[in-house]
Design goal:
The chain is an alpha/beta fold. The chain folds into three domains: 111 residues, 3-Layer(aba) Sandwich (Rossmann fold), CATH 3.40.50.720; 218 residues, UDP-N-acetylmuramoyl-L-alanine:D-glutamate ligase, CATH 3.40.1190; 141 residues, Protein-Tyrosine Phosphatase, Chain A (Alpha-Beta Complex), CATH 3.90.190.20. β1, α2 and β2 form a beta-alpha-beta unit. The chain is built from 20 helices and 20 strands. It has a nine-stranded mixed sheet with strand order 7-8-6-9-10-11-12-13-14, sandwiched between helices. A six-stranded mixed sheet has the order 15-16-20-17-18-19, with helices on both faces. The longest helix is centred in the middle third of the chain and has 16 residues.
Amino acid sequence: MALALNARLASLTSWRADWRGLRVLVLGAGTTGFSAADTLVELGADVLVVADRVADDVAGMLEAIGARRGSADDLAAFDPELAIVSPGFHPDDPLVRAVEERGVQIWGDIELAWRVRDKTGAPAEWLLVTGTNGKTTTTRLAAAMLQADGRRVAACGNIGTPVLDVVRYPAGFDVLVVELSSYQLHWMHRNAGGEITPAASVCLNVADDHLDWHGGFARYRAAKGRVYTNTRLACVYNKADATTRELVEEAEVVEGCRAIGFGLDVPGPSELGIVDGIVCDRAFLAERRTSAIELTTVAALARAGLAAAHLVADVLAASALARAIGVSPDAIRRAIAGFRVDPHRAEPIAEAGGVSWVDDSKATNPHAANASLSAHDSVVWIVGGLLKGVDIAPLIARHAARVRAVVVIGVDRAPVVEAFARHAPAVPLYEVTTPDTGGVMPEAVRLSLELARPGDVVLLAPAAASMDQFVDYADRGRQFAEAVRRLLGGTGDDDDPAAAYPRD
């Protein structure tokens, strides 16, 4: 029986395969879980959704599409033949363990989407993007470049729109730029028939993050490395991050796939980089040993708000992905000219009395906060939240000289306070201890205003996740901006497009 079921599951590699009657357990009822359930019901599967919490509107939609709801107690009676796990489920979750003990195959939503990607006809090419930081900006940049080149493109995955929703879009797409979290990558490339073969892939960087979820850096690194598996044309890596190159070297790829490096220095053959203020491609041209193609200029990046070093790196990575599938240099130039970085990513909020206020709430880990701090000389730093098992002390030691004062928020304040005591004891430090979560940011901003002096930047770069005291990083950034504007005599602004994409 098990052999027959495994053979059937291995054969399910098309929308037109026979999915009818397959008993599928869907773990999770958020955006990803619902999209999986909706897809499977449409395919004719028998679907049971199990989740700790199900929003009222989602419960109504599950009932409307014909999916059943249940609990862990229903597992034996349902006897699932397959399980689809939402990215947030920890591998050691009791329900995941129970499913594995029954010998049930577990797929992620990305694997399911790959198998049914031919719903509307010829499957789209996939470009995969991961990294500790810069994923969303790089994904959006690559999508903009493809669109400027006349391709029908969708940015999806961890960026906010489930891949399953995109592959079912009636008009179809030419290319999908898929942002992948380490959670999603953890569940990929585990089953026969589910081997994703992207045209090109990139891991932007690898630094400590989500170590509590993965159980250590080695497992987190291994998850990130899965992005390169089976890549056909180009594995793009960051020359400034040796781990990304090592992951390319270790990856099992399709024969003929090239390693393409990017960096802020002069590029060698098969690399993208910068020469005298010109962003150059020495990878995707026949004469790459003696020539280069101009893609854009550093001045043009500055006009688009992309001059910070980490954003230039994102531009190079996105350009490499786009060039790998033939996007023209002119399209890349036009895309950059019209591009703007999302809110809460080094976003200027106000300037008054010689003090600048900057919202980088998207800096949800030390690696991202490092880039943000490096851009300023004298900082009043609002830091803290959920540290996710990451040691923040090296970041504090590295930037102690530029931090003039610090305001600590979040539930994981103790490690931050202890790290400052060890590495920067002379820096004035204040903790926000109010139990009222709605009062956290107003108090942090009030303290920052008292501490700031002309020439300072008050920087919200928390180096931590937000869900301890806020809905998500966008909510944290909005509350910061509103508190700043109220305190300085302006008004808040609730019109924030990033609210549609809550991700930490």
